[in-house]
């Protein structure tokens, strides 16, 4: 099944549930009409929250840049010793 | 005993290059340093670099032996996806590693990819920057923001099953790579994402290992407006085709 179909199916299920709520009138109708809006807003909040959390916890590795420079020096020495012409830096 | 320890698996490391004269020497040195306990070959697919990348590879073949370093050049720049297909044709290993030549992918992580594959029997082991032990160096806030935004969007819409979609440091069982790459059509930036999403949909066992990513090309943000549009188009394409 194509992925878009899965997502559509979920949306259809949610809509069906919402229409059911409208019909059954277990909660006041004016509230029910606002539910899709809440849904979209909470989806947006979820997205922003995830991006925010991701940014705050963004893993960085400054020490790796230092280690890489050491590795590069080591490799360059080896190339010089073995006569591989890697040219000027 | 030494031969015994090397085991039956052979790893073909495919590295596409374009003007990577210095980097290819450094990366090959590091590959040999970190993989001495394994059977492997490095396949350099060079797209006609004018800077003499191929000369360097030939010199390295003299140092390390031609059976360990294969140079399989192409006449001109033909793109990343076809470079892998080209390299794959010449791969003699039962496992294939694809990695970038610019040293943002450090060969010191190769043993952890291999170890993970052996432990889990996975068909694909993919490097991820976004878990404990992983990380990125050299990105500004804008770059981090775009990266996180793109990732949240893709995780929410595609359910890809891996935490780092656009990372391209991966180990594949050769048969799996051949199978997946034949159904991938995207170019450029979206290519790596399509590879892993198709692999997930096909039901391949995918495992992740943490890697660090040191961006050495400071200042030149690869994520401009047109890349973002390409990314969104790729996302939409994957939504309707996978």
By oligomeric state, this entry counts as heterodimer
**What value does the Rg of chain A take, in angstroms?**
28 Å
Q: What count of domains describes the coordinates of chain B?
A: 2
Q: Choose one word for the global shape of chain A.
A: elongated
Order of helices and strands of chain B: HEHEHEHEHEEHEHHEEH
Q: Give the biggest sheet of chain B.
A: 7 strands, mixed
**What ranges of chain B have pLDDT less than 50 throughout 5 or more consecutive residues?**
none
Please count the helical segments of chain B. Answer: 9
Compute the separation of the termini of chain B in Å.
47 Å
Greatest interface and its participating residue counts: A-B, 32 and 45 residues
Tell me about the biggest sheet of chain A? none
Total of DSSP H or I helical runs spanning 4+ residues of chain A: 3
Task: Write structural notes for this entry.
The complex is a heterodimer of chains A (89) and B (242). With 89 residues, chain A is an all-alpha fold. Chain A contains 3 helices and no strands. The radius of gyration of chain A is 28 Å and the shape is elongated. The mean pLDDT of chain A is 91. Chain B is an alpha/beta fold and 242 residues long. Chain B is 45% helix and 18% strand. In chain B, helix 2 packs parallel to helix 3. The model of chain B has no long low-confidence stretch (mean pLDDT 91). Chain B has 2 domains: 103 residues, Alpha-Beta Complex (Spore Coat Polysaccharide Biosynthesis Protein SpsA, Chain A); 111 residues, no CATH class. The radius of gyration of chain B is 17 Å and the shape is globular. The interface between A and B is large, with 32 and 45 residues. Chain A: Pathway: Protein modification; protein glycosylation. Chain A: It is a multi-pass membrane protein.
Features:
heterodimer, A: 89 residues, mainly alpha, 3 helices, 79% helix, 0% strand, elongated, B: 242 residues, alpha/beta, Spore Coat Polysaccharide Biosynthesis Protein SpsA, Chain A, 7-stranded mixed sheet, two-stranded parallel sheet, 9 strands, DPM3 (chain A)
């Amino acid at each position: 099944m194509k992925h878009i179909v899965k997502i559509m199916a979920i949306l259809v299920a949610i809509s069906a549930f919402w229409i059911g709520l409208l019909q059954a009138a277990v909660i006041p109708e004016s509230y029910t009409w606002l539910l899709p809006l809440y849904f979209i807003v909470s989806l947006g909040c979820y997205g922003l929250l995830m991006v925010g959390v991701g940014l705050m916890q963004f893993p960085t590795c400054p020490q790796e840049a230092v280690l890489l420079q050491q590795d590069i020096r080591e490799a360059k020495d080896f190339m010089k010793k073995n006569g591989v012409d890697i040219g000027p830096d | 005993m030494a031969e015994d320890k090397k085991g039956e698996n052979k790893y073909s490391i495919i590295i596409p290059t374009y003007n990577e004269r210095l980097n290819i020497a450094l990366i090959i040195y590091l590959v040999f340093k970190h993989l001495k306990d394994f059977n492997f070959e490095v396949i350099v697919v060079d797209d006609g670099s004018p800077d003499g990348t191929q000369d360097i590879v030939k010199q390295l073949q003299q140092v390390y032996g031609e059976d360990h370093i294969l140079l399989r050049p192409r006449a001109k720049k033909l793109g990343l996806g076809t470079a892998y297909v080209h390299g794959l044709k010449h791969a003699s290993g039962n496992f294939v590693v694809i990695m970038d030549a610019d040293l943002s992918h450090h060969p010191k992580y190769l043993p952890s990819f291999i170890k993970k594959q052996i432990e889990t029997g996975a068909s694909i082991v993919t490097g991820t920057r976004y878990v404990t032990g992983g990380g990125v160096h050299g990105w500004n806030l804008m770059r981090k923001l775009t990266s996180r935004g793109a990732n949240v969007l893709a995780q929410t819409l595609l359910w890809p099953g891996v935490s780092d979609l656009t990372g391209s440091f991966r180990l594949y069982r050769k048969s799996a790579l051949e199978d997946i790459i034949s159904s991938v059509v995207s170019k450029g930036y979206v290519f790596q994402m399509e590879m892993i999403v198709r692999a997930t949909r096909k039901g391949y066992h995918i495992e992740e290992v943490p890697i660090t990513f040191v961006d050495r090309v400071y200042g030149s943000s690869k994520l401009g407006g047109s890349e973002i549009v390409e990314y969104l188009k790729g996302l939409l394409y994957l939504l309707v085709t996978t």
